[in-house]
Every structure is written in C-alpha cells, then in structure tokens.
Predict the structure.
Amino acid sequence: METPDTTDGFRPERALNRVFVIDDDIDIRQVLRTVIETAGLQVDTFSSAIGFLAGGAAALAGCVLTDFQMPGMNGIELQKELTRRGARMAVVVMAGRGSVKVAVRAMRAGAIDFLEKPFSEAALLESVGRALDFVSKAQTSSSLIGTARERIALLTKREREVFDLVVAGDSNKEVALELRISPRTVELHRAHVIKKMGTGSLAQLVRLSVAGANARHVERRRIVGAA
C-alpha cells in the first residue's frame, strides 16, 4: 500500500490550471513544489502514478509533471493510461541524462515536453507554463501541423535524412555511420535543421516530426482529450 508523505495528495478544492507532480523521491517532490508554487501556480504532489490515478486527479485539467522511472507504472505508461481515459492533461516527462530514446518515446506517446535531469528552474517553469497554456486554450493541432509541414519542406534531402534519424533517437555518431558521413558533418546538418525548423530542443524537433507525419495522431494525443 502506498504511504505518501503529508504534503502529497489531491486537494479537490483547488481550481483548474494546476500542476500535478509525480515522483517517488520525496526530496524531488518538495523541491519541485517549492519552485512551482513560488511562481504562483497551484501544485499537488504524488509519490506514484498509481496513487495519482487512484486519487481522482486525472478527472481534472492541468499539467502532469512526472518522472519516467518509477515503480509500478512509469511516466510513459501513465501518459498512455491518461490517453485511454480521455483525460484533459498535458504531460511533461522527466528523466536522467542520456535519455534521448526516452524523450522520443515520451513525445510519441503524447507528452507535450521532456525535461532531462538536472534541469534549471527556468526550463522547468517554461515547460510547465507551456503545458498549462496548451490545456487552458484547448488548442487544436492544425497550426502546429501546418508549421511542421512548411518547415520540413525547407530541408534539403540530406538535412531531412539527418532530421529523420535524430528524431528517431539516433546519436550523431549513429547518424554518421548510417549516412556514411563524418560526425562533424552531422553536427553541421543538425545545426541547419534546428535553424530551419525554428526549434531549440530535441522535444520540439520530435513534436514537429510527429505533427508533420500524422495530423490525426497529433490532434488526438498532443493534448489528451482536449475539448
């Protein structure tokens, strides 16, 4: 049986536009709570994904900030369960260094963003803010899809090859081996891709890739159960 600390749990009296922090490390939960509440946002914390679902919070709208690796149910499994339930949640997944493939899996499962630990307070608040904004406006994905298609069309054949491999989770070295070019050349192409796509992170590249590849998939999953 789960035994959350005294700061954990769902407070039903709180309004919308709230953040649900899910991490099995109590110290991390408390730090995240402090940072997010200091920014003027409302926070509920949970020590497990199972506890979060059991508490009934998934029936509300908000941002879910969840660790990837947790006992019982990991962050991506939680995302899939929220999708199945039609929850109005935008999910941000956290994971440790070297988690490129986890980031790709999270984004393709419907997460709105991915944070690689350790991350700054600014990065945290930016991701959370973006998720809450996405939920509150209940945006459709049509704008994102159109932007993705337009920007992908700007890529050269080689840049598109690099782009496809990068968003699939390949490292620069793996891309170089696959395309039979030098890692330095991959870095140059990758820089051109990032500039043309107007992105600053892997998560944004993956998001545009998914949008450009499958409009229906994005509309259904980018924000789970949007009205």
Summary: Residues 1-7, 9-15, 215-227 have pLDDT under 50 and may be disordered. The two ends are 35 Å apart (CA to CA).
